[in-house]
Every structure is written in C-alpha cells, then in structure tokens.
Design a protein that fits this description.
- It is built from 14 helices and 24 strands.
- By secondary structure, the chain is of the alpha/beta class.
- A seven-stranded mixed β-sheet has the order 5-4-3-2-1-6-19. Strands 8-15-9-10-11 form a five-stranded parallel β-sheet.
- α3 packs antiparallel against α4.
- The termini are far apart.
C-alpha cells in the first residue's frame, strides 16, 4: 500500500481530515486539482468575509457623526478591496500548505479518478505538472465539495461577464451600478449586502414566500425590514422564468402571484444553491449510490464500497465548512477504531450580512411541528447596555426550550456580532443544558452576550431588563 489514507479534495473537510489522520499515525496523502483550501478558503467563506468587512467599514463611515466624528468625502478603491480579499485567501492557502508539511502529508496536485482496487479503490491521478500516478490506500475519503447550481435552460448560467456565481462576484473589475441577486440564502444575501454597502442598486429575488427561508420566521422578517432600510429591494414568492443577456446588462422575466414582471440590471448573480462534485470520479462504476448530486453515506461517512468514504458538501446538506470538518474528523476516527465525535451535534449557521444572522437547533415552528411544547424567549438589543453604547441596537436574541424537559433546543439571533455569539448556545445544546443551567451561567457585563441570558430568562417569565 502506498498510503493508509488518501483524501481527495483539500477544502475545510479534506485538509482537516488529512491532519487528523496524520495525528492518528496514518500515512496520509491529499489530492487537490486546484488550490489548497478548496472553495472555502479561496473563493468562499474567507475571502467573502474580507469583502464584507470592507463594505461594512465603508457603510459605517456615513454614521461617524453618531459617534462625534467627522469624515469628509468618503470614497473607496474597488480594486484595492478585491486585492485585499485575494491576499487574505492567499495567506490562508499558504497556511494550509504549511500544515500539510508540518504533518508530513503528501500533497498531490492533479485530478483524481477512482478505479477498482484491492480493498479500497485505486486513485488514478492526472498530474497537474503532466503525466499520471496511480495510488493505492487502505482508505479513501472523498471531500470533493460542491459548486454553484445553475439552470442553463432559462439562461441562469455564468458567462464571466453579465451573469455571475460567487466566483465571478468576488473578482470583478468594478462594482456594478445595478445588480440582481437570484436567491436569498446566505450566499445571495451576503453578496447583496456587500454590493449595496458600496452603493449598487440591488434587488434580491426569492422563489419562496420569505427571504432566508431556513431561518426562524421572526428573524427572517426582521432581516427583511433591516435590509430594506439599507436600500435593498426584494421580490419574494417570485420565480425566474427567463434570463436574457445583452452587451449592456441582463433582463429577467419573473412570475409572482400569477403575474409577470420584468427586471433589468447590469449584472445578475445566481445564488440558488449548490450541486455536489460527483462527476468524472468513477463513482458509478464502483457502485456508489448518488442522490440529487450527493453521495449517499452511512453514519460514519461510509459509501457501501469497501474502504471508500465521503464527507462534507459532496455528502449532502447542510453545506457548511464546519460541518465538513466535523464529519471528516468523525470519519477518520471511526476508521482508527476510536469512539468518534457525535455526528448529531448541533450545527450552527451564520450569515455575515449587516445585520448578522446566526442560528442553531430548532426554530419555533419546527419545535411545534414535532409536537414539542416550546417555551420561547426574546430579548432585543435596543435595551442592552453594550449595544446602546456601541450604537448597535438593531436585532434580538430568541431562545427555544422544551417546555417539558427544560432542554435548550434552539437559538436564533440577528444583530451585531451574533455570529461570534452563537457558539455559546451551540455549546449549551451540545452539553444538553437545561434552562436552569443557562440561568446559572454568569454572563459578563457589559456585553452583547447578556442578551442571550435575558432571552433564556424571558422564556420562563424571569427577564430582568424589560
């Protein structure tokens, strides 16, 4: 055997899996066809946050008078904003390369394809530098990720000019004067938030009745109003029937409530979900089951083919980097014969717009659908001392408890820095905390996190500051 473990794909799922495999004493290799760090570090999670920070900072300049400060003739250099984002991605790409070297993981640059082998499938690699190499390992882990979903039949396909996916939206030469974003999930809302902060006229189209449809309904409604205050426009319950391109822009034909409408803009961003990267890997020939572009796996990432596993986006939702890393560690620890981490642990979700949105566990509606007698608490940031001092009073914290057991089963937030706060509730749910344990936890003052404590107290009629 050449290796104990071969990981195909070096995104947050793949490279973390490879590191853990090496820590466990496995001779490990990782195959990557593009850049170490995958989509997340190079074209997704990280560089988008660099863009959003620039947009947020620029938007804040118009509010400096609120803090007794003066700013005259604020402007931005769009090329520098993009350049900074790419530098951030490059720095993290180099960081992953360092980690691979530190953990003695062989990095093989090329395109992998699986073939029948002794035990686990063979990995045939068309090397980026030319030539080919065939590898054999005891275990092969697919971490090939996913890409943007497109619909070419109605024109929703990127052309690098007038129609973008997240990739094109990250490196344009200039910010568009007008923009239509198709899809109001986290990716769509984040790009809408960034470009609106820089002054673009932005309209978001959502086929479902409300934006951010996976979020708690109260959060969704509050977000809608907050985004509209910032100048974003929305068309909800509207389906795209056709997207047509010209030399100067795009025309989109919508249908909503039985009526048709036409929108025009310079650019359209397609953000309607993702599809798993399962093509050209030889999976069908091996008998791997694929459903809706994702590999079907068991509780440990097993595909049913001896020695072959799949983790992360290619293995299905939720399509989150931290979920991929968590699954990868679980998978390789299972291979090592350890008792791995719990795959059913709650997975938080974050949207880095202005305001930020974060959630974990069940929504109020989901709790009711499951027959749970939920106790729900809320606390607004407008009466939180730190929020008032910081001028960040928008939003609230909402908690959902099981009324019978007292278990915290869900938490939902909208406001400043809530993506940094949600982990407190995630840890509480993971540790199966009850309301009494949350009540007994001391939250520092003054902090935004005090709203978490108050929201828990409110669920039981014990709120202190409203």
């Amino acid at each position: 055997m050449d290796f104990d473990v071969i990981v195909i794909g070096s995104g947050p799922g793949g490279y973390v899996t490879a590191i853990r495999a090496s820590q466990l004493g496995f001779k490990t290799a990782i195959v990557e066809r593009e850049a170490l760090g995958g989509v997340c570090l190079n074209w997704g999670c990280i560089p988008t946050k660099a863009l959003l920070k620039s947009g947020e900072a620029y938007e804040n300049l118009s509010h400096m008078a609120d803090y007794g400060l003066k700013i005259e003739k604020a402007s931005f250099d769009f090329s520098k904003i993009i350049e900074r984002s790419r530098k951030v991605a490059g720095q993290l790409n180099s960081g992953v390369a360092f980690l691979m070297k530190k953990h003695k993981i062989e990095v093989i640059e090329g395109v992998a394809k699986l073939e029948k082998g002794q035990g686990a499938p063979k990995v045939a690699v068309a090397l980026k530098a030319g030539g080919a190499r065939t590898l054999q390992a005891k275990h092969v882990i697919l971490a090939t990720g996913a890409r943007a979903r497109t619909v070419p039949a109605i024109g929703m396909e990127p052309d690098g000019d007038r129609v973008w996916t997240y990739r094109e939206a990250m490196v344009p030469k200039a910010a568009p004067k007008s923009l239509i974003v198709i899809g109001s999930g986290a990716i769509g809302i984040e790009f809408a938030s960034f470009y609106r902060a820089l002054g673009s006229d932005v309209t978001v189209i959502e086929a479902l009745p409300r934006i951010l449809p996976v979020e708690d309904e109260e959060v969704s409604k509050t977000a809608h109003k907050a985004f509209e205050k910032r100048g974003l426009k929305f068309r909800v319950g509207a389906s795209v029937k056709k997207l047509a391109k010209s030399k100067t822009g795009v025309t989109i034909e919508l249908e909503a409530g039985g009526k048709t409408e036409t929108l025009e803009a310079e650019i359209a961003i397609v953000a309607i979900g993702i599809v798993g990267n399962v093509e050209d890997l030889g999976l069908e020939a091996l008998g791997v089951k694929i459903e809706k572009t994702h590999v079907v796996t068991d509780a440990h990432g097993g595909t049913g083919v001896p020695g072959l596993y799949a983790i992360g986006d290619v293995a299905g939702p939720p399509w989150l980097a931290h979920k991929a890393s968590h699954e990868g560690v679980h998978c390789v620890e299972h291979i090592a014969g350890l008792k791995p981490n719990n795959l059913s642990s709650p997975i938080p979700g974050c949207t880095y717009s202005t305001p930020q949105i974060a959630s974990v566990g069940l929504t109020e509606a989901q709790a009711k659908e499951q027959g749970i007698e939920a106790k729900v608490g809320r606390f607004p940031f407008k009466v939180n001392g730190k929020a008032i001092a910081a001028g960040e009073t928008e939003g609230f914290v909402k908690t959902v408890f099981d009324g019978k057991t007292g278990a915290l089963i869900g938490a939902h937030m909208i406001g400043a820095e809530v993506t940094e706060m949600i982990q407190g509730f995630t840890l509480a749910i993971t540790l199966e905390a009850t309301e009494e344990e949350v009540f007994a936890t001391v939250f520092p003052h003054p902090t935004l996190s005090e709203a978490m404590h108050e929201a828990a107290l409110d669920a039981y009629g014990r709120v202190l500051h409203i």
